Amino acid sequence: MTWFQEKLYDHYAQTLSIEKVLYHWRTEFQDVLIFENAIFGKVLALDGVVQLTERDNHIYHEMIAHVPLMAHGSARNVLIIGGGDGGTLKEVLKHPVERATLVELDGEVIDLSRRYLPEVSGGAFDDPRATVLVMDGTRYIAETREKFDVILIDSTDPIGPGEALFTAAFYRACRTRLRPGGLIAVQSGAPFFQPQELENVCGRLAGSFAGVRPYLAPVPTYAGGMLALVAAGESRDALRPPCKVLRERCGPLQGRTRYYTPEVHRAAFTLAPSFEPFVRSD
Ligand code: SAM
């Protein structure tokens, strides 16, 4: 049997059997491997790091999209930085948004995801409300004059091209591109293995946003038990509205999510005491 080994951390590796390699190539920016695994279905790995699998990607995509969109309640214009697989775009377009712009550095990730992982985006790239731009997210944020209700940072980890998406300067620039009441959500790694990453994201967002709150999602193929995301906006309470409010807003999602519910939204912000260092801005 052939094995794929993801060695993200010292003294720890995750190994998945490769039933079949569907694609393997080095793009201008990164190594792209798409393979089939008997448990997780199709797997996309960039530079040797699992980005998503067919079986569990919905948990990540629903939580990065629906938590900020439902907390906002009336988002019309949404920006996604990264997310070239289209999974976050698919979830965003379940809301009655007028426009969703996806800015992905590596056009080949979009093309390959559409070809080999069409179920992840589920036709979202062809939705008339979607605009797809192939360029660096930091350059886009610096140059655009557009304002958004919600910005989602669906990036790789802060190594290589993704690093610039984790800086205080980038979050400050994102803040200027938000309309009043606007929210941002950021993929922030596995806190068990990468506590510094979560601390950095929270601290840097706190430089630009009055309300900063980490929340958790269990994604089996992201090693370390829980994936951390961080939501930020003008007020901390706005990120976790009461269940009653979330239920009233849930109409467009009714029967269209497999993981997200208003109860899961609220529970995701309930953190163990060991997370206290990360919520010091509360
Ligand atoms: N859900 C995934 C995870 O956390 O493992 C990440 C999904 S998505 C595949 C990440 C994307 O971010 C990649 O396709 C990568 O090319 C893109 N990306 C990295 N740096 C970027 C940048 N500076 N601007 C725009 N996109 C970027």
From TrEMBL:
Keywords: Polyamine biosynthesis, Spermidine biosynthesis, Transferase. It catalyses: S-adenosyl 3-(methylsulfanyl)propylamine + putrescine = S-methyl-5'-thioadenosine + spermidine + H(+). Residues 1-234 form the PABS domain. Pathway: Amine and polyamine biosynthesis; spermidine biosynthesis; spermidine from putrescine: step 1/1. Spermidine binds at H61, D85, D154, S155, T156, D157. Gene3D superfamilies: Spermidine synthase, tetramerisation domain (2.30.140.10), Vaccinia Virus protein VP39 (3.40.50.150). It comes from the Bacteria. The active site is at D154 (proton acceptor). GO terms for cellular component: cytosol. Transmembrane segments: none annotated. GO terms for biological process: spermidine biosynthetic process. One of its GO terms (molecular function) is spermidine synthase activity. It is an enzyme of class 2 (transferase). Homodimer or homotetramer. Belongs to the spermidine/spermine synthase family. Catalyzes the irreversible transfer of a propylamine group from the amino donor S-adenosylmethioninamine (decarboxy-AdoMet) to putrescine (1,4-diaminobutane) to yield spermidine. This is Polyamine aminopropyltransferase. It comes from Microvirga makkahensis.
